[in-house]
Write a structure and sequence with these properties.
4-stranded antiparallel sheet; 8-stranded mixed sheet; Alpha-Beta Plaits; 2 domains; alpha+beta; Ribosomal Protein S5, domain 2; 12 strands; binds adenosine-5'-triphosphate; single chain
Amino acid sequence: MKINGVVVRVPGKINLQLGVGPLDPNGYHEVTTVFQAISLFDDVKVKVGEAGSGIAITLSGSTAPGVPVDDSNLAHRAAQIMIERYDIGSDIEIHLKKEIPVAGGMAGGSADAAGVLVGIDALFDLGLSRDVMERIAAELGSDVPFSISGGIAIGRGRGDQITPVLSRGSYHWVLALSGHGLSTPAVYNECDRLREGLSISRPQISDLMMQSLRAGDSKAVGKSLSNDLQPAACSLRPALRLVLDVGLEYGALGGIVSGSGPTVAFLVEDEEKALDLTVALSASGVVAGVIRATGPTHGARVIETL
Ligand code: ATP
């Protein structure tokens, strides 16, 4: 049966550890990170568009306002790359239902790009392997391969070389949202500025983090959370320190700026603690919003065919 369209559900991510190496001569940083996919999703609908309409993007969802619909949208670039590489003669209609915070360090744009890759593969029955898809994903951005794979994984290189991590248990998160995003390049620049004159070693994942994940020990995972970009994000947005203090004071197992921020992710013991912390953070007046989520969850996958 020929399908007219697909809906792909794609998760946001949290970096449980993010190690950032020194700036290399090409202007990049080597990154070693542990990603966890969490239950906060964008739904990406991909359909064959009307002839002559090109790649057309529409938006809905709570975090859609302000997201571009032109070729600067990562989903547009993903569609373009697939059309060129696989000689797709059709125009493409994309609808993004966005719930992942924008510019929040949770890979919202990367999720949408991953959704388009998986969606076009399914719609045109291309039968691409995970490997091929992840390679195309890496051309679009360093977080895009993980958005396809989901679960828990180590990312090396620029974060785009993914190795799955076997782990146990599920994790409860409380996410403290900021009213305004932080630009990822600006946070890296600030990180370089703060480190000027220091000798920076190659980034590594701690043994304690790997052991804790294998054991499904959320208390130990909470203690092992770390992010080399956190000082830079806090330097650009000092209010984040206050948010971290409030969360830890109210019993979080650990708290961390997610990726380049400004979302702050708190790990808590269970659903009840998540509710308590949600109330405390909301009442504190230091956050723009609070969301609860669990992880790990699946990567980009088709949830509906049309
Ligand atoms: P990461 O965690 O991968 O660094 P992020 O979650 O901090 O990313 P995004 O939500 O991907 O950041 O958005 C960063 C910028 O990219 C936004 O300011 C927005 O203008 C632009 N952008 C392009 N495409 C998208 C998209 N599909 N969704 C959201 N933002 C997009």
